């Protein structure tokens, strides 16, 4: 069936199988491979994207369910060539090692900071508790999000 | 790659439309809400519906409000919204206790309370929480709405009284003064299904509640159990032992003993039967203790 999904502000219309998952729609049909695909069981969280402004695990959402809705992926974090403070924080604080969990972590971090601009370490850990870092680099991920909180000069990017 | 079998996709635009779609598919369709149980089951081919009826556009089923002496919860309320609601926390902290330990924040953004109840997973937390507080399910069908107590809602693992042409639309919880409630869960790791869990709601006699170190008399009590094979997620024997009795540690221990004795846990990778029975007892006591402390205003 035909679906139209707004991804990072741009409308995409594609013919898809009803059983296609949103994560594969983004990666294979739109070429937006920044969204990663991990456990396929909504445990690991690497496929996290925003659906209508809320982080969801895109391996457990059907592409047809996103028809008429808005998705934001990691490709939509930077604005006009300027990294989002969250992305910059991950650079500054060594927030990634292999990079597999990074897109999902950054999207959750962006959402957290939009709703709580000065989160405690505990609040950050709670926010990312549905996402696994296979390098176990959580310390630096938390530092990266704190860096972003302390260096946010841009308006919340909802 | 895990891929569901082929199915037709229908998107409901109203409750009546959803009911018409259900009638048209005659039992071959499944309703999808948050999808965080159904879609994984479809990927594993444990579920192979011919059609999915998507009710995510039914925002009229997403609400939390007081009406008279009842708290009304729309079936499409997301877990995250239940957890974030001060209204819910004020009247029934048991629901916040339970929500904090359901999956993880991102899953809670998508999963719904109605979907959780209808999935009827024996390890699902809200079923026991709603059983403890004696909630009522509102089910709409072709001939109108009917109500079923949550304590009669589940007919077995993954089975409920909701018919193939019906839709759960609301959960109603009576508000009664003088109460406290709590939920206690043991899980192997954060966000996992319960090894076991217990929920309790307790109403203490107004005269003696918290007065001069008196424990208070249990005017009424509700106890729910998760993942231990309790019939309808409900610990009826434990409740009966407490009604009218002083809210003491000794009586809580006896209620816990009864809760453990009357459930039917199954051994699995989360633990053997005797361990789960022990947890059912101990968690019942902890839930009662915390619920009573909240009823006395000693704990938030």
TrEMBL record, chain A:
Transmembrane segments: none
Molecular-function annotations in GO: 2 iron, 2 sulfur cluster binding; metal ion binding; oxidoreductase activity
Coiled coil: none
InterPro entries documented for this protein: 2Fe-2S-bd (IPR002888), 2Fe-2S-bd_dom_sf (IPR036884), 2Fe-2S_ferredoxin-like_sf (IPR036010), 2Fe-2S_ferredoxin-type (IPR001041), Beta-grasp_dom_sf (IPR012675), Diverse_Oxidoreductases (IPR051452)
Cell membrane in keyword set: no
Every 2Fe-2S ferredoxin-type domain range: 1-77
Pathway where it operates: Alkaloid degradation; nicotine degradation
Protein name stated in the entry: (2Fe-2S)-binding protein
Automatic annotation (TrEMBL), chain B:
Gene3D superfamilies given in the database record: 3.30.465.10, CO dehydrogenase flavoprotein, C-terminal domain (3.30.390.50), Uridine Diphospho-n-acetylenolpyruvylglucosamine Reductase, domain 2 (3.30.43.10)
Superkingdom, taxonomy of origin: Bacteria
Boundaries of every FAD-binding PCMH-type domain copy: 2-178
One Pfam family per UniProt: CO_deh_flav_C
Keyword Transferase found: no
UniProt signal peptide: none
UniProt GO MF annotations: FAD binding; oxidoreductase activity
InterPro entries: CO_DH_flav_C (IPR005107), CO_DH_flav_C_dom_sf (IPR036683), Diverse_Substr_Oxidored (IPR051312), FAD-bd_PCMH (IPR016166), FAD-bd_PCMH-like_sf (IPR036318), FAD-bd_PCMH_sub1 (IPR016167), FAD-bd_PCMH_sub2 (IPR016169), Mopterin_DH_FAD-bd (IPR002346)
Keywords: FAD, Flavoprotein, Oxidoreductase
Protein name: Carbon monoxide dehydrogenase medium subunit
């Amino acid at each position: 069936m035909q679906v139209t999904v707004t991804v990072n502000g741009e409308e995409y219309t594609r013919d898809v199988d009803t059983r296609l998952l949103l994560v594969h729609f983004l990666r294979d049909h739109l070429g937006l491979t920044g969204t990663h695909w991990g456990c396929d069981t909504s445990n690991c969280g690497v496929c996290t994207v925003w659906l209508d402004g809320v982080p969801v695990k895109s391996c457990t959402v059907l592409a047809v369910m996103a028809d008429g809705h808005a998705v934001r992926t990691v490709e939509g974090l930077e604005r006009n060539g300027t990294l989002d403070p969250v992305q910059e924080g991950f650079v500054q604080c060594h927030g990634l090692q292999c990079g597999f969990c990074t897109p999902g972590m950054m999207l959750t971090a962006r959402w957290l900071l939009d709703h709580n601009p000065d989160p405690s370490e505990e609040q950050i850990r709670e926010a990312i508790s549905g996402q696994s870092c296979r390098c176990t680099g959580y310390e630096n991920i938390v530092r990266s999000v704190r860096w972003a909180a302390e260096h946010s000069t841009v308006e919340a990017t909802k | 790659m895990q891929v569901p079998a082929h199915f037709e996709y229908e998107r409901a635009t109203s409750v009546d439309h959803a009911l018409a779609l259900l009638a048209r598919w005659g039992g071959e369709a499944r309703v999808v809400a948050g999808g965080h149980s159904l879609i994984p089951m479809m990927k594993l081919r444990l579920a192979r519906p011919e059609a999915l009826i998507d009710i995510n556009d039914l925002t009229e089923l997403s609400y939390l409000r007081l009406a008279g002496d009842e708290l009304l919860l729309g079936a499409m309320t997301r877990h995250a919204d239940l957890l974030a609601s001060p209204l819910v926390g004020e009247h029934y902290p048991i629901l916040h206790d339970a929500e904090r330990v359901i999956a993880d924040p991102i899953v809670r953004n998508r999963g719904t309370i109605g979907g959780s109840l209808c999935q009827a997973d024996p390890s699902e937390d809200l079923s026991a929480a709603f059983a403890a507080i004696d909630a009522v399910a509102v089910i709409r069908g072709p001939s109108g709405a009917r109500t079923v107590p949550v304590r009669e809602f589940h007919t077995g693992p993954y089975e409920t009284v909701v018919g193939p042409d019906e839709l759960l639309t609301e959960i109603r919880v009576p508000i009664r003064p003088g109460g406290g409630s709590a939920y206690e869960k043991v899980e192997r790791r954060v966000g996992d299904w319960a090894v076991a869990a217990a929920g309790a709601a307790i109403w203490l006699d107004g005269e003696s509640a918290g007065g001069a170190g008196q424990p208070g008399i249990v005017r009424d009590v509700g106890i729910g159990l998760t993942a231990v094979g309790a019939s309808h997620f409900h610990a009826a024997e434990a409740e009966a032992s407490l009604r009218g009795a002083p809210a003491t540690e000794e009586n809580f221990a006896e209620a816990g003993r009864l809760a453990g004795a009357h459930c039917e846990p199954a051994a699995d990778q989360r633990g053997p039967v005797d361990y789960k029975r022990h947890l059912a007892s101990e968690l019942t006591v902890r839930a009662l203790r915390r619920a009573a402390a909240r009823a006395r205003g000693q704990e938030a």
